[in-house]
Here is the input.
Amino acid sequence: MQSKQILPILALEQIKGIGRKSIDEILKIFADFKPGSPKDLLDRLKEAHEINKRIKVPDIHEVEKCWNKAKEILETSQENGIKIISGKSPGYPKYLAEIPDPPVLLHVKGNIDSLSQKNMIAVVGTRKPTQHGAESARKLGRVFAKEGFVVVSGLASGIDTQAHKGALDVNGTTIAVLAHGLHTVYPAENKKLADEIIEKNGAIVSEYSWGKNSFRSYFVERDRIQSGLSLGVFVVETGIKGGTMHTARFCKEQHRTLIVFKPTQEFTDHQKTEGNAKLISDKSADIIFENDDDLDLIRVKLNSTCKDLLTHEKNKDKPVIQEKLTLFSRNK
Here is the structure.
């Protein structure tokens, strides 16, 4: 853990009035942001304020308080096996780094290397699926894990839970993105599932520090991370107003592949699949999934997305990441 870089960023996160956008601006202003004390941090804030007047400058007492709180979070995280990485850390996921608003910090418990895998797919959906939706999510978790994908989801009840379980059924790797600090698991009944994810070489991850409880907006912010980690998002079942629709929107904004499960005739007009129908009718879906024959199409499309992300416009002035791009395994 690069504590010289992590500690001051954690301190910034504790200062009221300094949010993610302000921190992003501060990090852009200072190429090497490693203030070593509260006074150093305050000096950097004053310098940043001269360049961008919207950046708040607190008094030294607030900075000292927030610095000490950050030290406490850092120590507690280390004691609980949580690694904290910044956008400049070697282990920061390369796809996630390219979204418009990547997390400043990621808090990771479990196998941090799982975040660096290039073959990831998010499998998401409603918290209260139909039986068919739940069974489909678990099957998809198994199928994609066998294909060599890391299955990404949000550890919520319903579709998320079944997707994680499906991957674990076949000893696959799965990552859960949480909308709060890693001091807790929500829902509480998924604590055992979270432990199993970690035990089986996966990870639970959040942009929120130890002790940070969830808010409604955090779940939407979490959705951009699920999509940002992945090559594609598979929508299994969702209503019109489900949080999954946010994930689908982020998927399109981030130039990932959106795959939407086409409801069977029995569930065509079901409330739990209205979101699926809308995504299909709006022509938002890159792939409309009807049966296992569509897996070949998914393989090809995700390979194409992988290649596009590695040579994205944003990387023109950076060294191109050289990776062998091969079609995913067809092992079932």
